[in-house]
Amino acid sequence: MAGGAGQSGAELLAFAQFLDSSPQPLVYGYGRRNLHELRAREFGRLAGTVYLDHAGATLFPQSQLTSFTKDLMENVYGNPHSQNISSKLTHDTVEQVRYRILAHFHTSPEDYTVIFTAGSTAALKLVAEAFPWVSPGPESSGSRFCYLTDSHTSVVGMREVTAAMNITSIPVRPEDMWLAEKQDAAAASDPNGQPLHLFCYPAQSNFSGTRYPLSWIEEVKAGRMRPVSGPGKWFVLLDAAAYVGTSPLDLSVHRADFVPLSFYKIFGFPTGLGALLVNSRSAPLLRKTYFGGGTAAAYLAEEDFYIPRESVAERFEDGTISFLDVIALKHGFDALERLTGGMENIRQHTFTLAQYTYAALSTLRYPNGAPVVQIYSDSEFSSPEVQGPVISFNVLDDNGNIIGYSQVDKMASLHNIHVRTGCFCNTGACQRHLGISDEMIKKHLQAGHVCGDDVDLIDGQPTGSVRISFGYMSTLEDAQAFLRFIIATRLRPSHGQPLPLATPGEAGALPAESEAPNAVPATRARRSPSPQEDASPDARVWDNSPTTVDAVSLRPPLLETTRTQQTPSEKAAGIPDGGLGSHIVTNLFLYPIKSCAAFEVTRWPLGNQGLLYDRSWVVVNHNGICLSQKQEPRLCLIQPFIDLQQRIMVIKAQGMEPIAVPLEENSKPAQICQSKVCADRVNTYDCGEKISSWLSKFFGRPCHLIKQSSDFQRNARKKRGKDQSACTTATLSLVNEAQYLLINRSSVLELQRQLSTSG
């Protein structure tokens, strides 16, 4: 399932050449609507950013949010369960949005009902709990719950609900459905329509973008295609969450019984709101146990008496729906139509970008002819009917070995390219495309790998892949910036120098401290350390008197250590005895503010967390999220200097007056706040409004400086050895995972050479 053959070399496929060579007409953009103007006007926040995770969450346009905010400021929307004027306005607006949703999917209230949920996952759970399952008995084998193995975790999770009802769950492979033998409808259907079965499959795979035939809906319901043999009547749940973000869905033609979806996949906003579209013929079969506010026509508190409301939507929408978010959908539909002209235009535009990127990736070859990427696809991107704007792939080295997706993700982040990595909550498709057996999944779990982590290779085998996906506001420049990134990091011209990046500013300065352990060239050994700090080591030195006893110093002769005995790891690696020679520490740097410039010293005290005040502070945004150079490259321009005698840290930056910050908390009680550093919750305190205003002025957005509380202890626990259960504990500041970071000079020189060469 790798990409097809292509021309050797590192040339970027010309878009005009691609269009001319296409056997079918392709559409880029939205006719008279200027895409670049749209992008600049509605998505100015994307300047300098290449966002390629629209299958995860697409982005909202500025006008949508402006229009929605104006609506809220000009109208009073009350609880729709009340009877006052503002509540009546809310009820009527919500009902109008229901009609708008149904019209978007080419159907009407006579044929479908919109049940608002917290998202597609909640909609799936609702179906699992309310479907009229028939347990096996003397006269019936019971209902069957079948799902395509290429399904989202939330679909597969329905089997836990059915298992509690003693219902058999059966996974069905895509190959089995493609090869399923069509049967005569009359012979296949049970005259009594019992028992009732449910088949779930995605309109579009969220792993590979494969679009499965919508014709399966009627084929399965009519009994001409059955996921498994046996008597009974089949219902179909079409998981449309990934599909409807970039493609129209006509429910007047493809009459699925249940259609779950999430609106942020279409509009980007609001999040946390979805719907279950229920076919009117199937709705009466749904059973409900729990009843919440607004769902009862009548009930008694002291007697088991409850009558549900007649409306299907009111019966299943427990409690007050998120009515302001529902109202926001109206503005989402308006913006989408105004900016693009409709979903068919979006489908054509996004597919053109995906097919171009697929074709360009497929042509990339190393000098030895080996492909640069392996693409996971069932469709060869032949048409938008069979393929969505999603490309799942892994990067290869010139020997055909897979480079872990975490490495690709880290490198992409340094170029401000946003991708998705892992299995994307679709283990079945991941196993199928990557050749991962059930036994390997269990072995990976025992090795410590869980869904969503960055363990990308185990025993040289991938645990996931890289995914890029396009949205309606994606541009050719996005696609080409990504392609140039792959070329620049994987291929080199004949003279041996790395290719320049697509646009200036993508690569920033040296990698941030928070990114350093993984920010290594793709050609390096994956498990070799890469301890670069995040600012160049030429920061000015602040001379301090050696007033403390616990100090490390550099003075002639330079700090030097010599070993004569080998460590076990050196012996295991086959390093000759004494081959490492002497170790000389030539420079000492600390980074008082995490991700900012270095502070070089010749003598410095040691604390219980390593070098005193090393990474004790960090800059956070208005939400308290720690900033790194990935989000804010100008952090490298902040230069802190520590004066131990005056007990202050002076912070400088070009164009700003120097500002001093106390090294320790003052006598006033500090407000303690919690921040997250490398998955650890740490107690910190805000260093005050003065430094906050200084930083906010420099960065042009609200920022704060926080410091780890002196009475808070953060520990790192690491096993001593592979076969030892004992652990050693080190006390950490705001570092990633170790008190000290060592780097050899040759690595620094090589990094500087590559940066100079790339311009």
From TrEMBL:
Catalytic activity: Mo-molybdopterin + L-cysteine + AH2 = thio-Mo-molybdopterin + L-alanine + A + H2O
Pfam family, one: Aminotran_5
InterPro entries the UniProt entry points to: Aminotrans_V_dom, MoCo_sulfurase, MOCOS_middle, PyrdxlP-dep_Trfase, PyrdxlP-dep_Trfase_major
Coiled coil feature spans: none
Domain (Aminotransferase class V): residue spans on this chain: 50-482
Domain Molybdenum cofactor sulfurase middle: from-to ranges: 585-702
List of catalytic residues: C425
This protein's UniProt keywords: Molybdenum cofactor biosynthesis, Pyridoxal phosphate, Transferase
Disordered, as annotated region: 496-575
EC number(s) per entry: 2.8.1.9
Cofactor: pyridoxal 5'-phosphate
Family of the protein in this entry: Belongs to the class-V pyridoxal-phosphate-dependent aminotransferase family. MOCOS subfamily.
Function recorded in the entry: Sulfurates the molybdenum cofactor. Sulfation of molybdenum is essential for xanthine dehydrogenase (XDH) and aldehyde oxidase (ADO) enzymes in which molybdenum cofactor is liganded by 1 oxygen and 1 sulfur atom in active form.
Entry-linked HAMAP family: MOCOS
Name of the protein in its database record: Molybdenum cofactor sulfurase
Organism (species): Balaenoptera acutorostrata
